[in-house]
Amino acid sequence: MISYLEGKIFRNSDEGLILLVNGIGYEVLLPEITAESFKKYKKNDIVSLFIYYHQTERQPAPVLIGFENEKDKIFFKKFISVEDIGVIKAVKALTIPVEKIIAAIESEDQKTLISLKGIGKRTAGKIIATLKGRFEDESAALSLTSGEERVDISSSTDLIDSVKSVMVAQLGHHPKEAEKMIKDALKRNPHISQFEELIEEIYKKDGKGKNK
After folding, report:
1. pLDDT digits (tens, 9 = 90+) for 181-198
2. Positive or negative, the Cα torsion across 133, 101, 77, 143?
3. Does residue 108 come out as left (phi exceeding 0), alpha (psi in the -120 to 50 range) or beta?
4. What is the rounded CA–CA span in Å between residue 206 and residue 212?
5. In 10 A of CB 128, how many CB atoms?
6. Which of 64, 2, 1, 78 is nearest to 34 (CA)?
7. Would you say 88 and 105 are in contact if contact means Cβ atoms under 8 Å apart?
């Protein structure tokens, strides 16, 4: 599963972007709240995104949704748990900051929720019924720093999972082989905390053209 990406922008639009990570282009959908923040970035600018990876039997082609920070991704995962709100509908609905949506849910402010793209009165009621009170235990997570800061994810499995997913799905490695290569790279450099750093360490070559 891909959960975090850092790379160069190849193409940027209102709907999403193509992010180049070590020569691989990832097409990433962006909710409006994220796309608005990313308008300032141009081709070849280096950016990072927290990724929600969506793939089901009915939707076999993977869909990547990018978020500027982890709090927006956390909210998104809860948002799509509401009946009648699918992934694409949720992407289109996030037109105002997550904090305002949460405040509207907790105060049962249907007017604000109806102002979200594609959300009617009936769905607004379902959002309140499903999500009210579900954010209290995650207040710390929902106040994480913005994506403009470099996020150290070395203490989680997200980095390893993301790199392993790319190595298996995109680069043709067997899962066990990828795990060993990642483990060896982290032994050589245990302070790695970024996607590109780990990829570079894995494929670092000695003078004979072989991986270390």
Report:
1. 988 888 888 778 777 788
2. negative
3. left
4. 6
5. 19
6. 64
7. no
162 contacts 5 by C-beta, under 8 angstroms: yes
Mapping DSSP to helix (H, G, I), strand (E, B) and coil, where does residue 64 land? strand
CA distances from 98 to 20, 90, 117, 133, 138 (A): 27, 12, 14, 15, 14
Are residues 201 and 192 in contact, defined by beta-carbon separation less than 8 angstroms?
yes
**pTM of the complete model beyond 0.70:** no
Residue 48: which of 63, 76, 70 has the closest Cα? 70
- Give 172's Cβ-side CA count (13 Å radius): 0
Angle at CA of residue 70, ends 64 and 73, nearest 5°: 45
Tokens of 75: 């909210």
Confidence of residue 136 (pLDDT cuts 50, 70, 90): low
Question: What span, in angstroms and rounded, lies between the C-alpha atoms of 134 and 65?
Answer: 22
- φ/ψ (deg, to 5) at 54: -120, 125
CA 75 to chain CA mean position, Å: 12
CA-wise closest residue to 77 among 21, 17, 135? 135
Q: Specify the pairing of strand 24-29 against strand 63-67.
A: parallel
